[in-house]
């Protein structure tokens, strides 16, 4: 049994080494490093995979969010509603652009944005709802989209952790994460379910006019070279990363199935452990298990984490500090106690190794090591 990794990028590479190496070499030999044929091919293949009209590749997932917001004509002081329990990038972009982040509570089971909290947070200054599809399953998009329509708001889905997850509406219609709203934004950071060998990202939309604007924003505000109609940024997915992503995209469904199978095995080991709450599966969305995240009850979470590390098993806490208590957002005026669900989750969650190369033997070691700690400390 090999070393247990949180994400085994090297193992995944070895399983597709010949295709990856050939794809990289083809780009080197073509010397088309920026916006070359591989980027255009990846864009078209991802559009077909997602069932969306437009994919705009860019340099990373944070840029994807920024480009989406810059494309909507928002003004300084406009409010963007987003969940409190998530990685900082979504809120960071809102603040960076001079808009006002409005944090809302999350559902204690799904960890995703609470739609009723969104409704209560809307003011005359609200312009955007930005749900984050956390850990691999979609937020309550039926209700979020209904609220947005009622109040004439844009919706930007952060789907960096849930690419290929699909959502089923009450009428039976299905759509993939990121394709249900004004814009979807994703990251191809190496550890993502669809990851490249560096930074990369993309945004998606079904709106022709917004797609054109987003491409312009991502390219220094240009439609025609050296004619800048607006202030933009420089954000491009390079050809080598696109070539790598093309190889991995062909396997994305298999990768997600492998993650779901691994999650099922974890569930089976932990089902009778009362101190552990296994991840909830919302029946309206598939779960792609970017993370396998437990909630612990009545045990020392950091003591457990140290115990796992002492046995050469990684275990991570996503996320230890809620956004409203981060020093960077002191100016928002929130205080401890304002978000009891989020604050509780930050004290309870722990994520276990989850990746496509995870073996049953490795998982059994993870599970037995964790359970041993609980038995000794209960």
What does this protein look like?
The chain is of the alpha/beta class and 378 residues long. The chain has 2 domains: 9-249, Aspartate Aminotransferase, domain 2; 252-376, Aspartate Aminotransferase, domain 1 (Alpha-Beta Complex), CATH 3.90.1150. Helices cover 39% and strands 15% of the residues. It is built from 13 helices and 14 strands. The chain has helices spanning 9-15, 17-30, 37-50, 61-70, 89-96, 115-121, 141-151, 208-218, 239-249, 252-270, 301-310, 340-348, 360-376, and strands spanning 54-58, 79-83, 100-104, 126-129, 154-158, 166-168, 174-176, 183-187, 201-205, 222-224, 227-228, 276-277, 292-296, 349-352. The strands form 4 sheets. It has a 7-stranded mixed β-sheet, sandwiched between helices. Strands 12-13-14 form a 3-stranded antiparallel β-sheet. Strands 6-7 form a two-stranded antiparallel ribbon. Helix 7 (141-151) links the parallel strand 4 and strand 5 (154-158). The chain is globular and about 70 Å long. The mean pLDDT is 97.
H-E string = HHHEHEHEHEHEEEEEHEEHHEEHHEH
- Helix/sheet category: alpha/beta
Number of helices: 13
Taking Cα atoms only, what radius of gyration do you get, to the nearest Å?
Answer: 21 Å
Distance from N terminus to C terminus (CA atoms, Å) equals 30 Å
**At the first level of CATH, what is the class of the largest domain?**
Alpha Beta
């Amino acid at each position: 049994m090999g070393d247990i990794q949180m994400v085994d990028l090297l193992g995944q590479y070895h399983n597709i080494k010949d295709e990856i190496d050939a794809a990289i070499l083809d780009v080197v030999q073509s010397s088309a490093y920026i916006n070359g044929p591989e980027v255009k091919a990846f864009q078209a293949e991802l559009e077909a995979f997602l069932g969306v009209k437009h994919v705009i590749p860019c340099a990373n997932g944070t840029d994807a969010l920024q480009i989406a917001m810059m494309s909507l004509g928002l003004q300084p002081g406009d409010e963007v509603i987003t969940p409190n329990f998530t990685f900082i990038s979504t809120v960071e972009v809102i603040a960076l652009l001079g808009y006002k982040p409005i944090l809302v509570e999350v559902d204690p089971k799904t960890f995703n944005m609470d739609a009723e909290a969104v409704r209560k947070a809307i003011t005359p200054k609200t312009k955007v709802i930005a749900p984050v599809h956390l850990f691999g399953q979609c937020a309550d998009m039926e209700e979020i989209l209904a609220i947005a329509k009622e109040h004439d708001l844009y919706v930007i889905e952060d789907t960096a952790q849930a690419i290929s997850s699909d959502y089923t509406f009450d009428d039976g219609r299905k759509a993939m994460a990121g394709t249900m709203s004004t814009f979807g934004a994703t990251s191809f950071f190496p550890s993502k379910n669809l990851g490249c060998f560096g930074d990369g990202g993309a945004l998606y939309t079904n709106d022709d006019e917004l797609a054109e604007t987003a491409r312009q924003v991502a390219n220094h505000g240009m439609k025609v070279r050296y004619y800048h109609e607006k202030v933009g940024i420089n954000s491009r997915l390079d050809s080598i990363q696109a070539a790598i992503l093309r190889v991995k995209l062909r396997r994305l469904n298999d990768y997600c199935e492998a993650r779901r199978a691994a999650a099922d095995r974890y569930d089976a080991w932990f089902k009778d452990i009362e101190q552990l709450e296994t991840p909830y599966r919302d029946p309206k969305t598939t779960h792609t298990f970017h993370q396998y995240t437990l909630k612990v009850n009545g045990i020392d979470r950091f003591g457990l984490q140290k115990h796992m590390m002492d046995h050469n098993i990684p275990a991570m806490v996503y996320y230890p500090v809620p956004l409203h208590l981060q020093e960077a957002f002191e100016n928002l005026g929130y205080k401890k106690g304002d978000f009891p669900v989020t604050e509780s989750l930050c004290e309870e969650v722990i994520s276990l190794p989850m990746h496509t190369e995870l073996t049953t033997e490795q998982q059994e070691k993870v599970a037995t090591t964790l359970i041993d700690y609980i038995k000794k400390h209960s």
